[in-house]
Specification:
The complex is a heterodimer of chains A (197) and B (211). Chain A is 13% helix and 27% strand. With 197 residues, chain A is of the alpha/beta class. Chain A has one domain: 3 Solenoid (UDP N-Acetylglucosamine Acyltransferase, domain 1), CATH 2.160.10.10. The model of chain A has no long low-confidence stretch (mean pLDDT 89). Chain B has 211 residues and is mostly beta strands. Chain B has one domain: 3 Solenoid (UDP N-Acetylglucosamine Acyltransferase, domain 1), CATH 2.160.10.10. In chain B, 10% of the residues lie in helices and 28% in strands. Chain B contains three helices and 23 strands. The radius of gyration of chain B is 19 Å and the shape is globular. Chain B starts with 5 loop residues before the first helix and ends with a helix. About 2% of the residues of chain B have low confidence. The chains are: A alpha/beta (197), B mainly beta (211). At the A-B interface, helix 2 of A face strand 11 of B. Chain A: Part of the dynactin complex that activates the molecular motor dynein for ultra-processive transport along microtubules.
Chain lengths: 197, 211
């Protein structure tokens, strides 16, 4: 077998050769921003305490500011924020879990909400507290999803009565989220330094 | 033998890096935690695939003896993929996470068998996907689902969390349900030289075509 060309001169295409000038950021020191997470655009980005941004997660502050509340998790391939050409701010409250491949362009996502794998929330929509979007579900532009709603099965919705009635269940979900953040802290190396100027 | 000129070498750079065991990995794949990923050989990882090998099981006990240290080493493999498996473009492979009693949430190792085809844009967080499974495009295998041998997951299916798909099932829908069984002789053939590949069969012919 022919010898491989030496690897020393190979330039990797995966390394994040981002321009030094990212969006103006306010990042809490307790947040974990993976080295390969991206923050783009020119509008302000606020990242609160105990947030975890996985590698290849993208915060897109191109159409307006993005605020991410405490104990939020944004997974790989997920995008939060509006693209160029659309205007509006995006706010994620506390304990929001944005799963991998999801896209959040919503005006506001309430606390304790889980945005499932590859789910989409289009611009101007608002999602209430403790909602669940199951994988691949879509919330259309400007739509409103009330508190404790579960969106499943190609747009069907129902209210999760268990979580409405029981504060214990809500607390369990919040606690689970906080524990997840603690576990991820040990696994995802932090690289937020380059975003703080 | 003289080395080819730098310009020449650049032009011969192909999209895939081929390992000694015949794995073909796209240069455009996003692979995290490479030491925790096992590829069985003749496996294709296409462009835009994200693999989260860094999300491994947390090592609980300190490595006090050599035996437990070895056990820790085994358990740290986060993603295992069998022979002749094809992972198509823009698929995400991420080990599932769950809270176990007593300790905090941990990730569980994810296993994919031999001759599994995963369609483009899918998401795999299953606990295990057995051999000869065909997953269509845009599928989501939610955390802790288990897919047994010779299954067909039709395009756009969302397999719900912790669902166990019995061998030989056809699964479709959101949420996914077993809608039928694969016919007699499904996935037969495809292994020989010059043969066309078949769904659920030996994918070697398809792997050979990838370059």
């Amino acid at each position: 077998m022919a010898a491989r060309p030496p690897t020393t001169k190979r330039t990797t295409t995966t390394s994040t050769s981002l321009p030094a000038a990212g969006p103006p950021c306010t990042i809490d020191p307790t947040a974990v921003i993976a080295d390969k997470a991206q923050l783009t655009g020119s509008h302000p980005v606020t990242i609160a305490e105990h947030v975890v941004l996985h590698p290849y997660a993208r915060i897109r502050a191109e159409g307006g500011s993005v605020t991410i509340g405490p104990y939020c998790i944004v997974s790989e391939g997920a995008v939060v924020g509006l693209p160029e050409g659309q205007q509006g701010d995006v706010v994620l409250e506390r304990w929001v879990n944005v799963e991998s491949g999801a896209e959040v362009l919503a005006k506001q996502v309430g606390e304790g909400t889980e945005v499932g794998i590859q789910a989409r929330i289009w611009e101007g929509a608002t999602v209430g507290r403790f909602c669940r979007l199951t994988p691949t579900e879509v919330v259309g532009a400007g739509e409103e999803v009330g508190d404790f709603t579960v969106v499943f099965g190609d747009g069907r919705r129902r209210v999760d009565k268990t979580i409405v009635e029981s504060e214990e269940v809500r607390n369990a979900r919040v606690k689970g989220m906080e524990k997840q953040v603690e576990a991820l802290r040990k696994l995802v190396p932090d690289g937020k330094a380059k975003w703080i100027s | 033998m003289s080395r080819p000129a730098p310009g020449n070498r650049r032009s011969t750079k192909s999209e895939y890096i081929e390992t000694d065991t015949g794995n073909k990995i796209s240069r455009k794949a996003h692979i995290e935690g490479k030491p925790n990923i096992m590829l069985g050989g003749r496996t294709v990882i296409m462009a835009g695939v994200t693999m989260r090998g860094d999300l491994q099981r947390k090592q609980e006990r300190p490595a006090d003896g050599s035996e437990s240290a070895a056990a820790d080493k085994v358990s740290s493999t986060a993603i295992t993929i069998g022979r002749g498996t094809i992972i198509s473009t823009n698929t995400t492979i991420r080990p599932p996470m769950r809270s176990s009693r007593g300790s905090g949430p941990t990730f569980y190792p994810l296993r994919i068998g031999d001759n599994v085809f995963v369609g483009p844009g899918s998401h795999i967080s299953a606990l295990s996907v057995s051999s000869n499974v065909h997953v269509g495009a845009g599928c989501v295998l939610a955390p802790f689902s288990i897919v047994k041998e010779h299954c067909r997951i039709l395009p756009g299916t969302v397999v719900p969390p912790a669902m166990v798909v019995p061998p030989g099932s056809v699964v479709a829908g959101k949420p996914g349900r077993v809608v039928g069984e694969v016919g007699e002789g499904w996935g037969q053939g495809g292994g020989g030289e010059g043969e066309e590949w078949v769904e659920g069969g030996d994918l070697r012919a398809l792997v050979r075509k990838v370059r």
